[in-house]
Amino acid sequence: ENCGYDGPPVADEFDKPTSDPKKDKCSHCMKGCKMRNNLVNAGFFASINKLS
Questions:
Q1: Distance from C-alpha of 11 to C-alpha of 17, rounded to nearest angstrom
Q2: For the range 35-42, what are the long-range contacts, defined as Cβ-Cβ under 8 Å and sequence gap of 24 or more?
Q3: How confident is the model at residue 22 (pLDDT cuts 50, 70, 90)?
Q4: What is the b/e burial string over 8-33, where b = at least 16 CB atoms within 10 angstroms of the residue's CB?
Q5: Residue 21 contacts residue 5 (beta carbons within 8 Å)
Q6: Exposed (0-12), middle (13-18) or buried (19+): which is 36, by Cβ within 10 Å?
Q7: Where are the domains of the chain?
Q8: Taking the model in full, what pTM does it have?
Q9: Cα separation of 10 and 17, whole Å?
Q10: What is a GO molecular function of this protein (predicted)?
């Protein structure tokens, strides 16, 4: 659940910028990790879709 980010508030769960600590929540998406400069600890995998 927690990526280990402990910096200042960045964005809410919908990746909308915020400076309010109560609204700061990771979206668990790549964009949320990029906003926190924390791609190293991201817990997701790239998706590969096969087109037929």
A1: 4
A2: 35/10, 35/11, 36/3, 36/5, 36/7, 36/10, 36/11, 38/3, 38/4, 38/5, 41/3, 41/4, 41/5, 42/3
A3: very high
A4: eebbbeebeeeeeeeebebeeeeebb
A5: no
A6: buried
A7: 1-42
A8: 0.65
A9: 6
A10: iron-sulfur cluster binding
Mean predicted confidence (pLDDT) in 13-40: 90
- Is 12's pLDDT higher than 60? yes
What pLDDT, on the 0 to 100 scale, is given for residue 43? 62
Structure token pair of residue 29: 């998406």
